């Protein structure tokens, strides 16, 4: 029996699988890669909660493997996501992607089971280093540069985490990763803020989110599935572990839930639309973590669980479209339902889930967060989340399927994607429906905190249906009135509708001016760096220049010796 | 008893071996002999390190003349640690040198190389284990003269001017040290370090002694290439044969750092030098400027060897920074970095030497597409580079960790911040090489002469790389030795005398 095997660190099966993928080819590799997530999940099932071996490192006790209900839930989720993503990528012959994908999943599992900050940091960096290859695997110049920006930001996050962890560990004397919280005194405060920022970068907090929308749409069709599943969810986990109930997070989360909607509406690349909608969904989770009651935290992690599946499903359908047609811009697609009917249906299931239709998975977790917000008296937050939910329905629930599969006929004639892709999408779609219909038996059973919650009561269902119907109505009306021209997808026309109808008209100009200010800062710093480099590197002769980079003649060297000696002697004389 | 002579053997063996090497006259034989001698010295150093960790100080009266009249060899944890690094690196470099020098040194000068290398090793070991201030100067000169020869042996003619610059600066440094020692002798009438310490402690700020201190500090600073006295180092390391660069970068300047530690902590006393003379601020500022200035200059170099040379100067900045924190933890971080830096810079220079061996160039253009053609060499470069940056699970991380901790312990969080941002510059200069090696296509894809380096070069390189990883995970040996050394150095100088 597998369960009777000796204890293995949870990330090891996936890691071994990725190593095996380096050497194996053909069907054998497919079989091994399919089996590793299953093996890992079984291994996880036999893991008792508790702390497994401690290591003495630099004088601190490290706990590389700590299992409790929170980490177990994410552990299962990541194995599930890895399995679906592997199925989806099965037709590929690209070793780089297979190896990077599995080792990326292994790092994510390692991160959620890390019992101390240093282990967390190691997996934090591994997440970045393994995932970037999924972007580079696209093998275009754009993807290469986008991957470079991605890795730089990720390493920055790692450095911040390390700096913060160093201060935290030094000040508290313990390396354990438990509740950290903000608002300490003195240097400890700096440390916790650094950790908070490091988590924030990975979590795509506003103004730190650009790596996500920049890099994810540049990855390969299969790579994006992996990317969408792990990094931000690890960050949500880290926030839930380290900063539960931090009120600041509520407001950050609300901002995250709202602002991407404007961008998602005016974006043409459908995978980038999904990337914006990902920030929006993560925003819901961050609000949940910020509220911090057990209902809210449960909602946050449950939503993370569901989001991986339905966002994965949507990404997979768009990946299938990209794979089959080679195009992903909304303005170039349309009418695909004739030739890809199965993909169309699966995409609609995903769209229904993300829009939180009753009986679909998004509903059972999103409503938890909303209820928690009301229960804690965050009325404005509740309203803003309602607005965000309507926005999600509009851009992810309607825009994606509508532009890709319906709208005007683009004349593209293709076929259904390969069988493995369809299978992966079907598994995800099935899960969306099963979780949405029987939440108590599935996702609620895994929840880390005790809570009694029933999503299917009259108020919830009614509110949600009203919201959805009116959003749909608005979309249909705009379309009939030709106010929603799909051929001009990049202008403000789409978002105009939002800020005229839905009031926060002042938001967009503010965003634009802040974006402009950020751009100017970036330009200035670029000019500064370039000037610095120009002053120290001679491009024509291809050699360094400048006082400290050129060879000093001996007399200059001796001059410095004399200067320093004289200086010290004078100092001593005084 | 043979074992009682162990403290002097790491000096005597290579010193006697050097002329024998010259007489052997055949390159192969000389190589084998020199490697054996160096390996045996390494073995003895390890024994010494273990003994001192266990028993404390070993004192050896040369020729049976009791100190303080005769010359004393004193081996304690601090110098036994550095001694193991020096002899160990020397052995690995000698293994590596057999093929490396084939292309970089004229064939009829090979025996000269081995002779000079052994002399240099004898000098460095002597500096480390002697307990006599003047004797230290003598060994310093032995090692320095051998080093000038080693640098000038390269068949590249620019090595001659580089060696000459090095000679001029090195001699000025040595002269300053001699002047300083002379002033100390003038005032105290003794040359034995512990005796000096005891007598200097009796004076309360004497002008002659202070002037001596100034000369010594400047002289040693030249030798250890402290910014801005470092300008002899980049050309010397660039044009020297790769095996020489690998050896010198890991040992010569580090031994000089040790000399500085000795003069400050053992002879003058940390309290006096740092608090009364205010050297901590001066050293701290110079160290931080060294880290930033030289790391930055390293990022714009087109010659990878020059780049590594500037990086060495920056790393010395980290060591001096640790020392200038004037705490036991800071000194320990500095000593630990001596150990770890030898591992990483040795591996890096060996990788660069291997590339030079195959492509004939150390220019960054030669690295285009090398990731596919010399996978093992570039993998070694990558891991050692990560260690320089300070990525966890490498030795570099451990040093940076202790350095940052030592700074934070004093609430110097600005310094801690600067240490970490300094690492960002290391990412840039290492990253430049990795970028062209892994992401650029080779300039001439049809060229099949460029293949993986020979095994004899790969083995020592990878031993160092694995050591980088090993000492990044299991820190018990390096950290406990550095910790014991710094604690031992930190007791007041006067007490040391009383021990005897």
UniProtKB/TrEMBL annotation, chain A:
<feature type="transmembrane region" description="Helical">
    <location>
        <begin position="303"/>
        <end position="322"/>
    </location>
</feature>
<feature type="transmembrane region" description="Helical">
    <location>
        <begin position="73"/>
        <end position="92"/>
    </location>
</feature>
<feature type="domain" description="NADH:quinone oxidoreductase/Mrp antiporter transmembrane">
    <location>
        <begin position="114"/>
        <end position="388"/>
    </location>
</feature>
<feature type="transmembrane region" description="Helical">
    <location>
        <begin position="248"/>
        <end position="266"/>
    </location>
</feature>
<feature type="transmembrane region" description="Helical">
    <location>
        <begin position="421"/>
        <end position="441"/>
    </location>
</feature>
<feature type="transmembrane region" description="Helical">
    <location>
        <begin position="273"/>
        <end position="297"/>
    </location>
</feature>
<feature type="transmembrane region" description="Helical">
    <location>
        <begin position="190"/>
        <end position="212"/>
    </location>
</feature>
<keyword id="KW-0560">Oxidoreductase</keyword>
<feature type="transmembrane region" description="Helical">
    <location>
        <begin position="99"/>
        <end position="115"/>
    </location>
</feature>
<dbReference type="InterPro" id="IPR001750">
    <property type="entry name" value="ND/Mrp_TM"/>
</dbReference>
<dbReference type="InterPro" id="IPR052175">
    <property type="entry name" value="ComplexI-like_HydComp"/>
</dbReference>
<feature type="transmembrane region" description="Helical">
    <location>
        <begin position="461"/>
        <end position="480"/>
    </location>
</feature>
<feature type="transmembrane region" description="Helical">
    <location>
        <begin position="31"/>
        <end position="53"/>
    </location>
</feature>
<keyword id="KW-1133">Transmembrane helix</keyword>
<protein>
    <submittedName>
        <fullName>Na(+)/H(+) antiporter subunit D</fullName>
    </submittedName>
</protein>
<keyword id="KW-0812">Transmembrane</keyword>
<feature type="transmembrane region" description="Helical">
    <location>
        <begin position="121"/>
        <end position="138"/>
    </location>
</feature>
<feature type="transmembrane region" description="Helical">
    <location>
        <begin position="150"/>
        <end position="170"/>
    </location>
</feature>
<keyword id="KW-0472">Membrane</keyword>
<keyword id="KW-1003">Cell membrane</keyword>
<dbReference type="GO" id="GO:0005886">
    <property type="term" value="C:plasma membrane"/>
</dbReference>
<feature type="transmembrane region" description="Helical">
    <location>
        <begin position="343"/>
        <end position="360"/>
    </location>
</feature>
UniProtKB/TrEMBL annotation, chain B:
<feature type="transmembrane region" description="Helical">
    <location>
        <begin position="414"/>
        <end position="434"/>
    </location>
</feature>
<feature type="domain" description="NADH:quinone oxidoreductase/Mrp antiporter transmembrane">
    <location>
        <begin position="132"/>
        <end position="425"/>
    </location>
</feature>
<comment type="similarity">
    <text>Belongs to the CPA3 antiporters (TC 2.A.63) subunit D family.</text>
</comment>
<feature type="transmembrane region" description="Helical">
    <location>
        <begin position="455"/>
        <end position="473"/>
    </location>
</feature>
<dbReference type="GO" id="GO:0042773">
    <property type="term" value="P:ATP synthesis coupled electron transport"/>
</dbReference>
<keyword id="KW-1003">Cell membrane</keyword>
<keyword id="KW-0812">Transmembrane</keyword>
<feature type="transmembrane region" description="Helical">
    <location>
        <begin position="166"/>
        <end position="186"/>
    </location>
</feature>
<keyword id="KW-1133">Transmembrane helix</keyword>
<feature type="transmembrane region" description="Helical">
    <location>
        <begin position="109"/>
        <end position="128"/>
    </location>
</feature>
<feature type="transmembrane region" description="Helical">
    <location>
        <begin position="77"/>
        <end position="97"/>
    </location>
</feature>
<keyword id="KW-0472">Membrane</keyword>
<feature type="transmembrane region" description="Helical">
    <location>
        <begin position="213"/>
        <end position="233"/>
    </location>
</feature>
<feature type="transmembrane region" description="Helical">
    <location>
        <begin position="281"/>
        <end position="300"/>
    </location>
</feature>
<feature type="transmembrane region" description="Helical">
    <location>
        <begin position="245"/>
        <end position="269"/>
    </location>
</feature>
<feature type="transmembrane region" description="Helical">
    <location>
        <begin position="378"/>
        <end position="402"/>
    </location>
</feature>
<dbReference type="GO" id="GO:0005886">
    <property type="term" value="C:plasma membrane"/>
</dbReference>
<dbReference type="Pfam" id="PF00361">
    <property type="entry name" value="Proton_antipo_M"/>
</dbReference>
<dbReference type="InterPro" id="IPR003918">
    <property type="entry name" value="NADH_UbQ_OxRdtase"/>
</dbReference>
<dbReference type="InterPro" id="IPR001750">
    <property type="entry name" value="ND/Mrp_TM"/>
</dbReference>
<feature type="transmembrane region" description="Helical">
    <location>
        <begin position="6"/>
        <end position="25"/>
    </location>
</feature>
<feature type="transmembrane region" description="Helical">
    <location>
        <begin position="307"/>
        <end position="332"/>
    </location>
</feature>
């Amino acid at each position: 029996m597998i369960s009777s095997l000796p204890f293995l660190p949870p990330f090891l099966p996936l890691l071994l699988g990725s190593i095996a993928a380096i050497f194996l080819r053909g069907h054998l590799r497919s079989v091994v890669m399919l089996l590793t997530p299953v093996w890992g999940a079984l291994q996880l099932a036999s893991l008792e909660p508790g702390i497994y071996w401690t290591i003495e490192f630099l004088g601190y006790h490290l706990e590389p493997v700590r299992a409790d209900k929170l980490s177990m839930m994410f552990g299962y989720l990541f194995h599930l996501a890895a399995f679906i993503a592997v199925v989806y990528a099965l037709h590929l012959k690209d070793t780089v992607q297979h190896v990077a994908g599995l080792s990326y999943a292994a790092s994510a599992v390692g991160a959620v089971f890390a019992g101390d900050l240093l282990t967390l940091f190691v997996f934090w960096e591994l997440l970045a280093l393994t995932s970037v290859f999924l972007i580079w695997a696209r093998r275009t110049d754009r993807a290469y540069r986008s991957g470079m920006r991605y890795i730089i930001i990720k390493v920055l996050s790692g450095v911040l985490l390390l700096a913060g962890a160093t201060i935290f560990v030094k000040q508290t004397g313990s390396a354990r990763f438990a509740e950290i919280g903000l608002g300490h005194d003195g240097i400890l405060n700096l440390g916790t803020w650094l950790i908070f920022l490091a988590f924030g970068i990975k979590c795509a907090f506003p103004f730190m989110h650009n790596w996500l929308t920049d890099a994810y749409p540049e990855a390969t069709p299969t790579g994006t599935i992996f990317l969408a599943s792990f990094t931000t969810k690890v960050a949500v986990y880290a926030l839930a572990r380290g900063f539960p109930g931090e009120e600041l997070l509520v407001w950050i989360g609300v901002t995250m839930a709202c602002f991407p909607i404007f961008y998602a509406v005016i974006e043409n690349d459908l995978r980038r639309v999904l990337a914006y909608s990902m920030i929006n969904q993560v925003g819901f989770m961050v609000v949940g973590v910020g509220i911090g009651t057990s209902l809210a935290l449960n909602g946050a992690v449950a939503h993370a669980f569901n989001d991986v599946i339905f966002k994965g499903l949507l990404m997979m359908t768009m990946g299938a479209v990209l794979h089959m047609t080679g195009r992903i811009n909304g303005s170039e697609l349309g009418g695909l339902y004739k030739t890809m009917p199965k993909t169309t249906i699966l995409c609609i299931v995903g769209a229904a889930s993300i829009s939180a239709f009753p009986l679909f998975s998004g509903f059972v977790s999103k409503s938890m967060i909303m209820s928690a917000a009301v229960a804690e008296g965050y009325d404005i937050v509740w309203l803003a989340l309602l607005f965000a939910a309507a926005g999600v329905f509009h851009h992810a629930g309607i825009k994606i399927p509508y532009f890709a599969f319906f709208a005007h006929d683009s004349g593209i004639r293709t076929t259904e994607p390969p069988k493995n892709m369809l299978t992966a999408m079907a598994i995800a779609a099935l899960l969306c429906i099963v979780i949405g219909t029987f939440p108590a038996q599935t996702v609620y059973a895994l929840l880390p905190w005790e809570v009694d919650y029933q999503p299917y009561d009259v108020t919830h269902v009614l509110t949600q249906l009203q919201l959805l119907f009116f959003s749909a109505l608005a979309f249909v009306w705009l379309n009939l009135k030709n106010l929603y021209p799909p051929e001009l997808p990049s202008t403000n026309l789409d978002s105009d509708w939002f800020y005229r109808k839905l009031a926060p008209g002042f938001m967009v100009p503010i965003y634009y001016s802040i974006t402009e200010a950020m751009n100017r800062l970036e330009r200035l710093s670029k000019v500064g760096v370039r000037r610095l480099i120009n002053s120290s590197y001679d491009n024509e002769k291809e050699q360094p220049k400048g006082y400290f980079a050129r060879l000093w003649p001996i007399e200059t060297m001796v001059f410095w010796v004399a200067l320093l000696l004289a200086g010290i002697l004078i100092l001593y004389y005084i | 008893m043979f074992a009682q002579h162990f403290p002097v053997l790491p000096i005597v063996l290579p010193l006697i071996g050097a002329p024998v090497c010259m007489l052997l006259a055949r390159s192969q034989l000389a190589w084998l002999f020199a490697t054996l001698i160096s390996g045996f010295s390494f073995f003895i150093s390890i024994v010494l390190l273990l003994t001192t960790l266990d028993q404390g100080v070993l004192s050896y009266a040369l020729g049976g003349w009791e100190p303080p009249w005769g010359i004393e060899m004193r081996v304690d944890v601090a110098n036994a640690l550095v001694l193991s690094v020096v002899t160990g690196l020397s052995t690995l470099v000698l293994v590596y040198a057999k093929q490396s020098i084939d292309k970089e040194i004229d064939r009829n000068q090979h025996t000269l190389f081995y002779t000079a290398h052994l002399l240099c090793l004898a000098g460095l070991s002597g500096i480390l284990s002697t307990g006599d201030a003047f004797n230290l100067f003598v060994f310093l000169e032995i090692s320095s003269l051998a080093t000038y020869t080693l640098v000038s042996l390269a068949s590249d003619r620019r090595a001659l001017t580089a060696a000459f610059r090095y000679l001029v600066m090195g001699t000025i440094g040595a002269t300053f040290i001699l002047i300083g020692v002379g002033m100390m002798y003038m005032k105290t009438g003794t040359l034995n370090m512990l005796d000096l310490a005891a007598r200097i402690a009796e004076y309360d700020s004497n002008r002659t002694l202070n002037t001596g201190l100034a000369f010594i500090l400047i002289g040693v600073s030249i030798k250890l290439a402290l910014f801005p006295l470092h300008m002899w180092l980049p050309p010397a390391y660039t044009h020297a044969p790769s095996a020489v660069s690998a050896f010198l970068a890991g040992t010569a300047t580090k031994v000089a750092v040790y000399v500085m530690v000795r003069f400050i902590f053992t002879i003058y006393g940390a309290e006096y030098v740092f608090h009364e003379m205010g050297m901590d601020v001066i050293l701290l500022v110079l160290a931080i400027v060294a880290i930033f200035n030289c790391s930055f200059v390293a990022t714009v170099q087109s010659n990878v060897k020059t780049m590594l040379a500037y990086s060495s100067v920056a790393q010395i900045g980290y060591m001096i920074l640790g020392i200038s924190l004037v705490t036991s933890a800071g000194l320990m971080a500095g000593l630990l970095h001596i150990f770890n830096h030898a591992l990483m810079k040795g591996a890096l220079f060996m990788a660069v030497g291997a590339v030079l061996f195959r492509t004939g160039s150390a220019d960054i253009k030669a690295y285009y597409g090398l990731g596919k053609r010399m996978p093992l060499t570039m993998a070694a470069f990558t891991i050692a580079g990560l260690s320089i940056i300070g990525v966890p699970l490498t030795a570099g991380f451990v040093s940076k960790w202790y350095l940052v901790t030592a700074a934070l312990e004093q609430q110097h969080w600005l310094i801690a911040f600067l240490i970490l941002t300094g690492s960002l510059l290391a990412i840039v200069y290492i990253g430049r090489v990795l970028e062209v090696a892994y992401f650029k296509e080779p300039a001439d894809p049809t060229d099949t002469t460029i293949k993986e380096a020979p095994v004899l070069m790969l083995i020592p390189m990878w031993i160092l790389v694995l050591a980088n990883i090993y000492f990044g995970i299991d820190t018990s040996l390096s950290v406990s030795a550095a910790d014991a050394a710094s604690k031992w150095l930190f007791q007041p100088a006067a007490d040391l005398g009383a021990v005897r």
